[in-house]
Amino acid sequence: MKALVYTANQEVTYRDEPEPQPRPGDALVAIHSVGICGSDMHAWLGHDSRRVPPLILGHEAVGTVLEGSNPGSRVVLNPLVTCGACRDCLDGRQNLCAQRDLIGMYRPGAFAERIAIPERNLIPVPGDMPTSLAALTEPGATALHAITLAERVLARPVSEARALVIGAGSVGLLAALLLRDKGAASVSIVETNALRRDTVTHHSDIDTIDPAEISLENSAHDLVIDAVGGAVTRNTAMATVRPGGVIMHIGLMDSGGELDTRRMTLQEITMIGCYTYTPLDLRVTLDKLHHGSLGDLSWIETRPLADGANAFRDLHAGRCAAPKVVLTVQPDAA
Predict the structure, then answer these.
(1) Which of helix, strand or coil describes residue 195?
(2) Which residue ranges in the chain fall short of pLDDT 50?
(3) pTM (2 decimals)?
(4) Checking phi first, is residue 58 left (phi over 0); if not, alpha (psi -120 to 50) or beta?
(5) I need a labelling partner for 81 at 20 to 30 A (CA). Which of 41, 118, 216, 219 fits?
(6) Candidates 2.80.10.50, 2.40.50.140, 3.40.50.720, 3.90.550.10; CATH matching 140-273
(7) Who contacts 19 (Cβ-Cβ below 8 Å, separation ≥6)?
(8) Three-state SS for 199?
(9) CATH 1.20.1070.10 is held by the domain 2-136+297-328
């Protein structure tokens, strides 16, 4: 089969790879669409020691079951493979399973024509939904999970909150759209890439901010979502959250820098780390995407899997205006 393989730092190669071999309980899935995640970019740059080349990356995927209990059905892949029996799995927090695995990390990912994955990790796609839109389920679920965690500790409901999202990649933009769907009092996105700011402005009513022009003195946000996760963005989050507010830290760009823990303590600021999602987050997100709750989703860009190397280079160089590039592997079956 053909696959896009991470072969060296800043190199992915479209080449022939062995067919996947399903294990007991696995389904064999033909991939239709798969998004390029920020973590895929992180690996491509050689910044993720967990992803060792040669490796098929990709985990934001939609496909059709070839072998399994429901052949012919279209499915979104839950890329987190967990034990299903530990305390966290039984508590509905499968994302914290100590034995968790992720396709495209230690096992082959979805930048390929086919993949083997446990059947319990498959979520049915509504029959009339384009697979390129269903591929937004995984990043959307990451954003939804962050907002769900934030809702538990916010002093007032989201509908009364002023929210700021840092980063207008797909997770950041979907977080802003989910906050808008929940009726947040105001939602803004900080984004360095002018092309992406223009895309957000064109496709939504979300306010965009150039970080060079942000006024920290007038910032008092109840909720700040850092969808980048760098030293600079953490400092921005701390500077723009109001006393008693909440910072959700999603991004994994780096772990450096210093955090103003004095301000965090004296002003009772809550900072919460947020990792991926639960199976329920994925299903709720897919439903919202299908029913149009998140508005115009035409801000995605689709490219063929064979053009994946150029897509990685364009994303790294900031030449891509789309918050999400989705690679098409096979024709849409919708």
Answers:
(1) helix
(2) 334
(3) 0.96
(4) left
(5) 41
(6) 3.40.50.720
(7) 1, 114
(8) helix
(9) no
